């Protein structure tokens, strides 16, 4: 899904099992994303950008909570 409020691609994930822990997001070969900017549900910056290396990045899931990232090629 494109980012409705600017450049990049919006990625939303919702932890539904009720457990916290480390999550690895892996993109397909050929992906050009370089950073994942955490944002809130309104698209406002909500933390430091996360580097995407080897088509992967990690974040820590919180039980029953959504997390949103804007994926950027730069």
Tell me the distance between the termini.
18 Å
Strand content: 35-45%
Instruction: Tell me the structural class.
Output: mainly beta
What is the H-and-E element order? EEEEEE
Tally of discrete structural domains? 1
Describe this entry's structure for a reader.
The structure is a single chain. This protein is 0% helix and 43% strand. The protein has one domain (1-14, 31-74). It has strands at residues 9-14, 21-26, 35-39, 50-51, 56-61, 66-72. The mean pLDDT is 92. The strands form two sheets. Strands 1-6-3-4 form a four-stranded antiparallel β-sheet, with no helix packed on it. A two-stranded antiparallel sheet has the order 2-5.
Task: Give a quick rundown of the structure.
The chain has no helices and six strands. The chain is an all-beta fold and 74 residues long.
């Amino acid at each position: 899904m494109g980012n409705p409020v600017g450049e990049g691609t919006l990625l939303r994930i919702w932890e539904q099992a009720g457990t916290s822990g480390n999550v690895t997001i892996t993109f397909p070969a050929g992906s050009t994303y370089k950073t994942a900017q955490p944002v809130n549900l309104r698209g406002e910056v909500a933390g430091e950008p996360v580097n995407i290396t080897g088509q992967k990045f990690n974040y820590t899931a919180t039980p029953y909570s959504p997390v949103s990232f804007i994926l950027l090629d730069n």
